[in-house]
Every structure is written in structure tokens, then in C-alpha cells.
Fold this protein.
Amino acid sequence: MNLIDSIKAKAKLINKTIVLPEGEAERTLKAADKIIEEQLAKIILVGDENIIKMATKKFSLNHIAEAEILDPSTNKYRQKMIDLLMEIRKEKGLTYDEAFELTKQPLYLGPLLVKMGLADGEVSGAEHATGDVLRPAFQIVKTAPNSSVVSGAFLMILKDTTYSEDGLLVFADCAVNPDPNEQQLAEIAVATAETARKIAGIEPRVAMLSFSTKGSAQHSAVDKVKKATALAKLMNPNLQIDGEMQADAAIVNAIGQKKAPGSKIAGHANVLVFPDLNSGNIGYKLVERLAGADAIGPVLQGMAAPINDLSRGCSVDDIVNLVAITANQAV
């Protein structure tokens, strides 16, 4: 059983409820139909009920009738949502009228349903930019306790298993933080290790990447990675982690033992933590395109409840897969 099949099998067993705020979009509807057919999750679609019903006929979707539809114009939870928004945002001076308007917006309805316990997680972003998806999530669901940063991990599934865990590597942060400080980078490392363990099903061996390996270069950027590595060890003393380390030293055994002799991680890393978003985003896209890897994600880490953001270039299967992952995160 491959990774995605394993994730889907777990999703079937736990039967979580996932809200899809972009419920009128063609890809979302086709994905929802497939999710319901495969029994991966219960689905709430946010959107105009008439538009959804017309699209269901147009695309010959057979299972959408089993989804709950929350029409923003007839939102039966509106008053409770207004009260909740005003409580959450009272220090920001949110007015009743402003809260009323926000409860008409699908990207606010999704996190509100999660916050109210009516959904276990949210998947959105096929039709909206990341900032538009994350802004209401940060305001309403917020970050997890003891977490100061949200990050995005990718499960990278490679055809060549030479430099990976049976073809699997986990990359982060590739989606959210342009320039994390050492504390944030340490939190990203610990969170990504948990994603590797809980979602990918592997025992994490974390390499903190840099252009330097064990002092081969001197720079403030190198110092940040060193400090982040030390902080991550304090946060989780049982974590298998090492750094700073160049990418080849992290995944190629012969190079790792030459550049970082004695390291248990060098040459054997399966979790790669990049020092900034530039390197992380560029890195995963190069591996995806040049190595033909499947890049699954981003899986958002550090939220108080599972909220995941799609790429606007995503496929129907990408949505299905991310819903299954989100269901797994909700356990």
C-alpha cells in the first residue's frame, strides 16, 4: 500500500467532517463527489445551493446530495457566528455590522464552522490566494497552544528511492514564512517531525539545511540554523536532529560521513528543514519538476485545528488527497 492509499485508509476509518468553502467551484465539486464516493470524509460545501445543484447536474455528480450545503445567504448559524466573531475580535473593535458582513464570506464561514466544532477541518485555496485563506484562519482558529508560527510541509514522493525513505522525503517550510528566526525555525523542525510521524508514517530524522556543514562556512545565516537546531533539541530531547548541514551531506551517505563524521543524521535524513521560504519553495519545486516527484501539500502545521491551503493550480485529485490528509490531522 502506497502512502496516499494508507492515508486514505485511515481517513475512511475516522470519518471526519471537512468543510470546503469553495463549494461552487468545478474542481471542488468533483473532488467532493469523489471524497463522498470513497467515504474519505463527510463534506460541508459552502456556496449558493442553487448553483451547486445546477453544477451537480451539469457535471453528472452522483454523490453531492450526501454533502451538507451551507448557503451564505440562508446561513442558519449566522447569529451564533456573529456572536463568536465579536467575542474573538472584540479587542480589535469589530462591530456587529462588520461581523454580519463577514458571515456572508465563504472563507470566513469555513474557519467558523471549525471553531464551532461543526467541522473537524477545512481545505480551501483552489480559487483563492494563500493570504486570503489564512487570514480568517489566523483570526478565528488561531495557532496551536505553545506555537508561535504556522508552516507548510510537503510530502515529496520520489520514483528514485536512493536518497529517501523508500521514496519519501518531507520538506518544510515551503509555503508560509519568508524568513523565520531561530525560534520559529526550531518550531518548524519539531512540527515537521510530527507531520512525518503522524501523516507520512515514518520515524523522522531531521536535517537542518544550510550552505554550511558543521562550521564549513561562517555567516549569520549559518548561525541562525545552528541556534535553531539547539532550540529544537531543547523542545524535544528525543528528536533525531542535526545541523547545520548542506543538502548533499543530509541525504548522501558517503558525503554525509565525510562532511559530518559521526552524525547519525548525515546521509540518512528523511525530513529536510530549509532555512527560509526562498530555499524551501525553490527546493520543492525543483525536486517536483526535475525529479518527477509528487509533491503533496502544503500540509499546514501549527494551527489549533487542521486548516489546509491548496495551490490554485491544483487538480481534483490534489483536493481529494489533501482532504484525506486533513482528516488524519484531525485525530
Observations:
- The chain has a mean pLDDT of 95.
- The chain has 13 helices and eleven strands.
- The CA atoms of residues 151 and 301 lie 5 Å apart.
- The longest strand covers residues 294-301.
